[in-house]
Write a structure and sequence with these properties.
Order of helices and strands: HHHHHHHHHH
Distance between the termini: 41 Å
Strand content: under 5%
Helix content: over 70%
Number of domains: 1
Length: 211
Amino acid sequence: MLDALGIHDPWLFAATVFVLNATPGADMMLTLARTLQFGVRGGLASAMGAVAGCVLHTLAAAFGLAALMAASSAAFGVVKWVGAAYLAWLAFGMARTAWRGQAAAAAPAAAAGPSGAVLFRQGLLTNALNPKVALFFLALLPQFIDADAPHKTAAFLVLGAWSIAQGGLFLAAFVLLVAPLRRWRPSVRVHRALNGAGAALFAWLAARLAK
Protein backbone atom coordinates (compact mmCIF):
# COMPACT_ATOMS: atom_id res chain seq x y z
CA MET A 1 0.00 0.00 0.00
CA LEU A 2 2.77 2.44 0.92
CA ASP A 3 4.61 1.73 -2.32
CA ALA A 4 1.44 2.35 -4.29
CA LEU A 5 1.15 5.78 -2.72
CA GLY A 6 4.77 6.58 -3.48
CA ILE A 7 5.90 6.46 0.16
CA HIS A 8 9.48 5.27 0.66
CA ASP A 9 11.76 4.45 3.62
CA PRO A 10 8.90 3.98 6.13
CA TRP A 11 11.18 2.71 8.91
CA LEU A 12 13.43 5.75 8.57
CA PHE A 13 10.30 7.86 8.85
CA ALA A 14 9.28 6.00 12.04
CA ALA A 15 12.75 6.52 13.54
CA THR A 16 12.69 10.22 12.65
CA VAL A 17 9.28 10.69 14.23
CA PHE A 18 10.44 8.90 17.39
CA VAL A 19 13.46 11.17 17.76
CA LEU A 20 11.28 14.23 17.27
CA ASN A 21 8.69 12.93 19.77
CA ALA A 22 11.44 12.37 22.34
CA THR A 23 12.80 15.91 21.92
CA PRO A 24 11.37 18.13 24.69
CA GLY A 25 8.98 20.74 23.38
CA ALA A 26 5.78 22.52 24.33
CA ASP A 27 3.63 19.38 23.93
CA MET A 28 5.85 17.25 26.14
CA MET A 29 6.28 19.94 28.77
CA LEU A 30 2.55 20.62 28.99
CA THR A 31 1.84 16.88 29.23
CA LEU A 32 4.47 16.55 31.96
CA ALA A 33 3.10 19.48 33.94
CA ARG A 34 -0.52 18.33 33.74
CA THR A 35 0.39 14.74 34.63
CA LEU A 36 2.22 15.89 37.75
CA GLN A 37 -0.65 18.21 38.66
CA PHE A 38 -3.68 16.06 37.85
CA GLY A 39 -2.44 12.52 37.31
CA VAL A 40 -3.02 10.17 34.40
CA ARG A 41 -6.39 11.72 33.55
CA GLY A 42 -4.94 15.19 33.23
CA GLY A 43 -1.85 14.05 31.36
CA LEU A 44 -3.79 11.98 28.83
CA ALA A 45 -6.32 14.77 28.24
CA SER A 46 -3.50 17.24 27.50
CA ALA A 47 -1.66 14.70 25.34
CA MET A 48 -4.77 13.91 23.30
CA GLY A 49 -5.34 17.63 22.80
CA ALA A 50 -1.81 17.92 21.42
CA VAL A 51 -2.52 14.97 19.13
CA ALA A 52 -5.68 16.70 17.89
CA GLY A 53 -3.55 19.73 17.09
CA CYS A 54 -1.33 17.49 14.95
CA VAL A 55 -4.44 16.35 13.08
CA LEU A 56 -5.12 19.99 12.15
CA HIS A 57 -1.53 20.50 11.02
CA THR A 58 -1.60 17.32 8.93
CA LEU A 59 -4.77 18.41 7.17
CA ALA A 60 -3.28 21.86 6.61
CA ALA A 61 -0.11 20.39 5.11
CA ALA A 62 -2.02 17.93 2.95
CA PHE A 63 -4.36 20.54 1.50
CA GLY A 64 -1.89 23.40 1.13
CA LEU A 65 -2.74 25.75 4.00
CA ALA A 66 0.64 25.23 5.61
CA ALA A 67 2.27 26.04 2.27
CA LEU A 68 0.33 29.29 2.18
CA MET A 69 1.47 30.13 5.70
CA ALA A 70 5.05 29.31 4.76
CA ALA A 71 4.84 31.65 1.77
CA SER A 72 3.17 34.50 3.67
CA SER A 73 5.31 36.08 6.35
CA ALA A 74 2.27 38.02 7.59
CA ALA A 75 0.19 34.88 8.12
CA PHE A 76 3.09 33.12 9.77
CA GLY A 77 3.72 36.10 12.03
CA VAL A 78 0.10 36.33 13.18
CA VAL A 79 -0.14 32.65 14.10
CA LYS A 80 3.30 32.74 15.71
CA TRP A 81 2.45 35.67 17.96
CA VAL A 82 -0.94 34.24 18.93
CA GLY A 83 0.78 30.98 19.86
CA ALA A 84 3.46 32.80 21.85
CA ALA A 85 0.79 34.77 23.69
CA TYR A 86 -1.06 31.57 24.61
CA LEU A 87 2.10 29.96 25.98
CA ALA A 88 2.80 33.14 27.92
CA TRP A 89 -0.72 32.94 29.36
CA LEU A 90 -0.05 29.37 30.51
CA ALA A 91 3.21 30.58 32.07
CA PHE A 92 1.30 33.32 33.90
CA GLY A 93 -1.14 30.75 35.31
CA MET A 94 1.71 28.62 36.65
CA ALA A 95 3.44 31.68 38.09
CA ARG A 96 0.23 32.68 39.85
CA THR A 97 -0.07 29.18 41.30
CA ALA A 98 3.52 29.44 42.52
CA TRP A 99 2.78 32.81 44.13
CA ARG A 100 -0.26 31.34 45.88
CA GLY A 101 1.70 28.22 46.80
CA GLN A 102 0.49 28.03 50.40
CA ALA A 103 -3.16 27.73 49.44
CA ALA A 104 -2.42 25.43 46.51
CA ALA A 105 -0.29 23.08 48.57
CA ALA A 106 -2.89 22.98 51.31
CA ALA A 107 -5.61 21.87 48.91
CA PRO A 108 -6.72 18.24 49.27
CA ALA A 109 -4.82 15.78 47.11
CA ALA A 110 -8.10 14.49 45.73
CA ALA A 111 -9.12 17.90 44.32
CA ALA A 112 -10.58 17.35 40.88
CA GLY A 113 -8.81 20.19 39.11
CA PRO A 114 -9.88 21.36 35.65
CA SER A 115 -12.12 19.14 33.58
CA GLY A 116 -10.71 16.85 30.94
CA ALA A 117 -12.26 19.10 28.28
CA VAL A 118 -10.35 22.13 29.58
CA LEU A 119 -7.05 20.23 29.64
CA PHE A 120 -7.74 18.81 26.18
CA ARG A 121 -8.38 22.31 24.86
CA GLN A 122 -5.13 23.57 26.36
CA GLY A 123 -3.19 20.80 24.63
CA LEU A 124 -5.00 21.46 21.36
CA LEU A 125 -4.31 25.20 21.41
CA THR A 126 -0.68 24.75 22.48
CA ASN A 127 -0.09 22.68 19.37
CA ALA A 128 -2.49 24.27 16.89
CA LEU A 129 -1.14 27.78 17.56
CA ASN A 130 2.45 26.75 16.94
CA PRO A 131 3.20 27.47 13.26
CA LYS A 132 6.57 25.73 13.56
CA VAL A 133 4.68 22.44 13.95
CA ALA A 134 2.83 23.17 10.70
CA LEU A 135 6.09 23.91 8.93
CA PHE A 136 7.59 20.73 10.40
CA PHE A 137 4.86 18.66 8.78
CA LEU A 138 5.28 20.55 5.53
CA ALA A 139 9.07 20.04 5.56
CA LEU A 140 9.25 16.45 6.82
CA LEU A 141 6.47 14.58 5.06
CA PRO A 142 7.56 15.34 1.47
CA GLN A 143 10.98 13.82 2.20
CA PHE A 144 9.31 10.39 2.26
CA ILE A 145 7.05 10.84 -0.77
CA ASP A 146 8.28 10.15 -4.30
CA ALA A 147 8.31 13.13 -6.63
CA ASP A 148 6.17 11.17 -9.11
CA ALA A 149 3.79 9.75 -6.49
CA PRO A 150 0.34 9.33 -8.07
CA HIS A 151 -1.63 10.47 -5.02
CA LYS A 152 0.42 13.02 -3.09
CA THR A 153 -2.46 14.22 -0.92
CA ALA A 154 -3.27 10.65 0.12
CA ALA A 155 0.43 10.05 0.85
CA PHE A 156 0.51 13.19 3.01
CA LEU A 157 -2.54 12.00 4.94
CA VAL A 158 -1.15 8.49 5.48
CA LEU A 159 2.21 9.76 6.76
CA GLY A 160 0.44 12.37 8.88
CA ALA A 161 -1.82 9.73 10.42
CA TRP A 162 1.22 7.54 11.08
CA SER A 163 3.03 10.43 12.78
CA ILE A 164 -0.05 11.30 14.84
CA ALA A 165 -0.61 7.70 15.99
CA GLN A 166 3.04 7.24 16.88
CA GLY A 167 3.17 10.57 18.71
CA GLY A 168 -0.02 9.78 20.61
CA LEU A 169 1.35 6.42 21.77
CA PHE A 170 4.60 8.08 22.80
CA LEU A 171 2.83 10.73 24.89
CA ALA A 172 0.51 8.14 26.47
CA ALA A 173 3.53 6.03 27.48
CA PHE A 174 5.22 9.18 28.78
CA VAL A 175 2.18 9.96 30.95
CA LEU A 176 2.16 6.45 32.44
CA LEU A 177 5.90 6.67 33.10
CA VAL A 178 5.68 10.06 34.82
CA ALA A 179 2.42 9.54 36.76
CA PRO A 180 3.98 7.59 39.69
CA LEU A 181 5.99 10.70 40.58
CA ARG A 182 2.74 12.20 41.89
CA ARG A 183 2.99 9.97 44.95
CA TRP A 184 5.76 12.22 46.16
CA ARG A 185 4.18 14.98 48.26
CA PRO A 186 6.46 18.04 48.12
CA SER A 187 6.61 20.71 50.78
CA VAL A 188 5.02 24.10 50.18
CA ARG A 189 8.39 25.54 49.20
CA VAL A 190 9.09 22.76 46.73
CA HIS A 191 5.55 22.99 45.37
CA ARG A 192 6.04 26.68 44.68
CA ALA A 193 9.45 26.08 43.15
CA LEU A 194 8.05 23.47 40.76
CA ASN A 195 5.29 25.78 39.59
CA GLY A 196 7.76 28.63 39.27
CA ALA A 197 10.07 26.45 37.18
CA GLY A 198 7.13 25.44 34.99
CA ALA A 199 6.19 29.10 34.53
CA ALA A 200 9.76 29.96 33.55
CA LEU A 201 9.85 27.06 31.08
CA PHE A 202 6.64 28.09 29.34
CA ALA A 203 7.74 31.72 29.28
CA TRP A 204 10.95 30.56 27.58
CA LEU A 205 8.96 28.50 25.06
CA ALA A 206 6.79 31.54 24.35
CA ALA A 207 9.86 33.71 23.79
CA ARG A 208 11.43 31.09 21.52
CA LEU A 209 8.24 30.79 19.46
CA ALA A 210 8.04 34.57 19.13
CA LYS A 211 11.51 34.82 17.52
